């Protein structure tokens, strides 16, 4: 359970899954993986056509030393697109800016046409940005479809049991916006 405490101390409350749901994902969902070392912790789903990074946490004292980039490189070696959720940059929270810079340095782009808005148990909404890396060009509709699969098989895995509701109904939380034409 120490790994869960590490996550819980770092990630915002609205982004944290219940311990029971994560335990079930790790033990009962073959495509869901947890890798933990002294320096990092990553939980991700490996689908047939993409990887979804659910949580990536690098220990504070080794940040900016290449550990996170090494984890990303291991995932890139699978040769599949990688998707992850990133909090929008908040000028008041330095870590949000650092995260976005980290993912950009590692070749990730924001899926700027995929709108992703979730709801807390209290009914408050919060937005997350979808960032992606792909070994070859990929369209935003494909990104949204992959994200819908991650919602169904990861965020919603036994969510009725753990929360009494779906955590991320793809039909409600995802929307593909039309491209902006100049």
How would you name the oligomeric state of the polypeptide chains in this document? single chain
Task: Please give the count of helices.
Answer: 7
End-to-end CA span? 51 Å
Order of helices and strands: HHEEEHEHEEEEHHHE
For the record, the CATH architecture stands as: 3-Layer(aba) Sandwich
Query: What would the average pLDDT be, to the nearest integer?
Result: 94
User: What is the CATH superfamily?
Assistant: Gcn5-related N-acetyltransferase (GNAT)
Question: What class would the helix/strand composition place it in?
Answer: alpha+beta
Number of strands: 9
- Tally of distinct domains: 1
> What's the shape?
globular
Q: Widest sheet: strand order? A: 1-2-3-4-8-5
The share of residues in extended strands comes to: 15-25%
Helical fraction: 25-40%
Radius of gyration: 16 Å
What is the CATH first-level class name? Alpha Beta
CATH topology: Aminopeptidase
Please mark out the parts with pLDDT under 50 across 5 or more consecutive residues, or reply none. Answer: none
